[in-house]
């Protein structure tokens, strides 16, 4: 993996493309922080590559939600408590909807 600033990407794009062609992953940095990820792909594997990236992003989101629920003690609530929360949210949404008309 290589790190390239946006300025370097503009000024030395040929080098970046060569690294991608060789299979190297490139992290694009903007203002000193990671901004984008460039990876080599082929036409035949484009959809699979995108699906893999999206699946990992989704899995990471689920892991973060699970961690937050553990930290907040929400992993121990019962189905009855969950159903009550859902009913309350629906009631509040219905009341907001009725008051806006």
The first-level CATH class name of the domain at 1-40: Alpha Beta
String of helices and strands: EHHEEHH
| Multimeric status of the protein | single chain
* Helical content class: 55-70%
CATH topology of the domain at 1-40: YefM-like fold
CATH homology superfamily name of the domain at 1-40 = YefM-like domain
Describe the structure in your own words:
2% of the residues are buried. The protein has a domain at 1-40: YefM-like domain (YefM-like fold), CATH 3.40.1620.10. A 3-stranded mixed sheet has the order 1-2-3. The protein contains 4 helices and 3 strands. The protein is elongated and about 60 Å long. The chain is 61% helix and 15% strand. It has helices spanning 6-11, 13-21, 46-71, 79-99; strands at residues 2-5, 26-30, 33-38. The model has no long low-confidence stretch (mean pLDDT 94). It is an alpha+beta fold and 101 residues long.
Features:
3-stranded mixed β-sheet, alpha+beta, 101 residues, 4 helices, 3 strands, YefM-like fold, single chain
Topology:
Blueprint: E1 2-5, H1 6-11, H2 13-21, E2 26-30, E3 33-38, H3 46-71, H4 79-99
Parallel strand pairs: 1-2
Antiparallel strand pairs: 2-3
């Amino acid at each position: 993996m290589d790190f390239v600033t946006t300025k370097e990407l503009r000024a030395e794009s040929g080098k970046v493309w060569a690294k991608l062609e060789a299979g190297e992953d490139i992290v694009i940095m903007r203002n000193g922080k990671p901004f984008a990820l460039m990876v080599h792909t082929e036409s035949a594997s484009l959809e699979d590559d995108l699906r893999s990236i999206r699946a990992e992003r989704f899995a990471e989101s689920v892991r973060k939600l699970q961690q937050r629920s553990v930290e907040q003690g929400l992993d121990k609530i019962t189905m009855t408590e969950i159903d009550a929360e859902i009913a309350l949210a629906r009631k509040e949404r219905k009341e907001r909807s009725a008051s806006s008309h």
